[in-house]
Sequence to fold (249 residues):
Amino acid sequence: MLTGQNVLVTGATGGIGQAIVERVAALGAHPVIHYVQNVSAAEELLSRIGKKGTVVQADLSDAGGATELWEKSVSHRGRIHGLVNNAGIRATSRIEDSLAEWQRAWEDDLRINLLAPADICRVAIGHFRQYGGGRIVNIASRAAQRGYTEDHMPYGASKAGLINLTKSIARNFGKDGVVAIAIAPGFVRTKMAEEFMREKGREAVVGDIPVGEMVEPAEVADLVAFSLLETQRSLSGATLDLNGASYIR
Fold:
């Protein structure tokens, strides 16, 4: 159970984020629901969990957005017990693009998928040290493990960096009670995956998944909730694969 824990979930209005918020709330946590623009989706999610949460706005594409989000969350709740870095984007970047387009895609993906999580982890670690510990769960990707498509290379690279960040935090700050875990799903049944399927076809999505289906958001949420349990201290530093046997280490 997560009773009494305050858990900040970034990108909470997306498919995975909503499932995470609902799952941790069901286990007794108080979710801090992050959104960028879609306040109605955030408020609707808050209603679904019985108003037992807090809604916070921040734009992670801004250099100071992640730190601002953390500071707002702390001002609302005082003590944060868990951080779930779930917000992510996937820009299209082809080697045939102009240099400016190519660099823009890399900068956008790195900002949201790696630099913003790094910034918020920075302030979270300081906070956790002050209070005797805390937990960080970073939502990475199968793409970080095996590479990605030729027109989405920034996404895979940024998620690989997120996994390495997770390991570094676990190794360096475990002595301070900080637990850091990465979860690396394959294709999750979200709007992003559905758009990719429309673009590339169903076979490109599930053709090499032995179980024959995409990951459900609820599966990711269950692993997040498990990772937030105080009993799972020795899981720190791990990357949990969730990909239907489409990538096996």
Remarks:
- The chain has a mean pLDDT of 96.
- The chain has one domain: 6-242.
